[in-house]
Amino acid sequence: MRICVVGSGYVGLVTGACLADFGMDVVCVDQDESKIARLQAGDIPIYEPGLKTLVAKNEETGRLRFTTELAPALESAVAVFIAVGTPPREDGSSDLRYVRDVAQAIGGQISGYKAIVTKSTVPVGTGRMIEEIVGSGRCRSFSVVSNPEFLREGSAIEDFMRPDRLVIGSRDQRATDIMLEIYSPLRARGVPIVVTDVETAEMIKYASNSFLATRISFINEVAELCERTGADVQVVAHGMGLDRRIGPLFLRPGPGFGGSCFPKDTRAMASMARDAGARVQIVEATLEVNRRVQERMLGKIESALGDPRGRTVAMLGLSFKPDTDDIRESPALFVLDRLLSRGATVRAYDPAAMDNARRFRPDAIYCGDPYEAAEGADLLAILTEWNQFRALEFDRLRTLLREPSIVDLRNLYEPERVAAAGFRYASLGRADGAPDSQRRPASAIPAGAAFGSEAG
């Protein structure tokens, strides 16, 4: 089956490459000539593990091609996937200008039946908008389908090839049958498929991401409460997650959620509710908590560092999560910006995101590895949970840092282990660690700071 994917950004490129690997004949279209030139030359413009290999493999077989010409790609395609950006407006609503542009272009150029599939994350009602725009063109033979993506940056290929579920929103059986044929490899693997109407499919995506963001904000508030009461958030989250009604995922405290999805989608859902004359107060609270959590992370660093002016901080991690170079709304970028603005020197290292961060704050010092970043710093802060940051050589760090102080905003280490290596150590939702020479006497430890054997 021949497929046209309009938009060769993150979602479009992953979608095109994976559909080609399913055996489809895929043409990816983008109006950005420089991007298409790079893709045709084998240069992948985004960082995603395994994507370069997958693209090269399917280009070699002839199943995946890139072009700036929409009309020829549309002509022979049975399905047209819309995978363009839907950036947020200032009020949090989704800017659908690129979706409208693509719909107008499709409506003006198709001549035979097409299944027009929205892969972009779009608010409820966008499917009907596309139907109206395309229907005003010369062709009346088409169907609009909602097929939201659930791709996590850093594991997008695995998520596409082995998803938890596949959601198809359609108004007619012909379009549904086309989608089921496209995804026949997933059907053969027994992937659950939700077939519903377009509006419900559009809502599933927003409800899913808003719920996951809410879990993150919830456990971050629990972490703050644990710090104030002497409980251990790691054990609390584990105890919660063993309840099958709750489960363990998205219960890890951190510096807040970021990236291209959760902040944008939660704001869009709140905006969508307002437009519908309703409020999603839990989602609104989730956003406010996330903002406050990022401020609290800065406070934890400044509490360990003192006045940032004239001090040096080694920052490990700039991307919003590991295995991506995406810095969009990254909590690490918030901390970086605030520290620099308050007069600190920041020596930063990230395995993938430094080029992007350099465009955001060129005045930081970008280093070649964690140890170069630590050289001469007054404090080391861990902002992103890259695996290589889980195996730092503490003896080496102690000789490089001006002061043996670590603030771990991802809870990568046990406080006792770091303290035994001679560091002052602060993390989230747990007691701080300190070398034996700096420990408070037992009488100074607040009641409830140590675990007893009773189960409450």
Please explain how this structure is put together:
The chain has 456 residues and is an alpha/beta fold. The protein has 3 domains: 2-196, NAD(P)-binding Rossmann-like Domain (Rossmann fold, 3-Layer(aba) Sandwich), CATH 3.40.50; 206-288, N-(1-d-carboxylethyl)-l-norvaline Dehydrogenase, domain 2 (Orthogonal Bundle); 292-444, NAD(P)-binding Rossmann-like Domain (Rossmann fold, 3-Layer(aba) Sandwich), CATH 3.40.50.720. The chain is built from 18 helices and 14 strands. The protein has helices at 10-21, 33-40, 51-61, 70-76, 97-109, 126-135, 156-161, 173-182, 184-188, 198-229, 233-241, 262-275, 281-305, 331-341, 354-360, 370-374, 394-400, 415-420, and strands at residues 2-6, 25-29, 64-67, 79-82, 114-118, 142-146, 166-169, 193-196, 312-316, 345-349, 365-366, 379-382, 405-408, 424-426. A 6-stranded parallel beta sheet has the order 3-2-1-4-5-6, with helices on both faces. Strands 11-10-9-12-13-14 form a 6-stranded parallel beta sheet. It has a two-stranded parallel sheet with strand order 7-8. α1 packs across α3 (51-61). The chain is elongated. The termini are far apart.
